[in-house]
Please model this.
Amino acid sequence: MIWQTELETVAFSAGPFVVTGRYFYKLPRNEQLAIIAHERGHIFHRHQLKRLWWVVSLQWAGIAEKCRLQEYQADRYAVRMGHGKGLISFLKRIGPHENPLHPTPALRINVIQKWTEEWKTTAPSARVDPSP
Model:
């Protein structure tokens, strides 16, 4: 989920995701596609089921850190799908904010820039499509 009062995206473990809020539809297309790719990353990695398991099995220790790592996984998925620039643009747009379950936008931007550069230099034959 992206924490913005007028933008809400939710990925469900069964596969679909929901985008609500007028803010999303005002974003440039590349940012919309980056957000969707990020949410698809959550689905691909089954993050919602893992979070549910942590709650049901009372595995509270380190849950915020685990969630932050999942955000990076979803970001990496979006980068591999070719949406690194759109994701960076969106994170710059929303600016600094605090959310205990997400790394700060600045931290995410730094990591995404690194991955985007690495992905550009990877030989096409060595790339792995993260889609199911």
